[in-house]
Amino acid sequence: MKAFFLAIVLGLSATFAWGEDWTTSDGVKYQEVRVIRVEDDAVTILHKDGGALIFLYKLPPALQQRFDYDPVKAKAAMDARAKADVENAKALQAEIEEANKLRLQRQIADANAKLHTNAAPQ
CATH assignment of 18-69, given 2.30.30, 1.10.1060, 2.60.120, 1.25.60? Predict the structure, then answer.
């Protein structure tokens, strides 16, 4: 029974343990890396100083192999990511423009209400 609890404690501590240090091809260093998500073109990690999305082509060959890096799949995933980014940027811009339009309409309505309040006979 004692061994069972020890195994659970060790298993849980391993789950929360931090990993190795990485240096990308452009010289960026990440310490105590823990991989959160693997995609065809990138890995999402937590590290000592925060989090990051790292493209697989920037990783050393040993890490690329570990994550089954395939340049063809990565290119397709990067293209899809770029397309989604453009669509998201357009949607965000439309939301900003709508918010600005509503704010301007509210300002005009407030100004008209104030003008009518000040112009009313007393």
Answer: 2.30.30
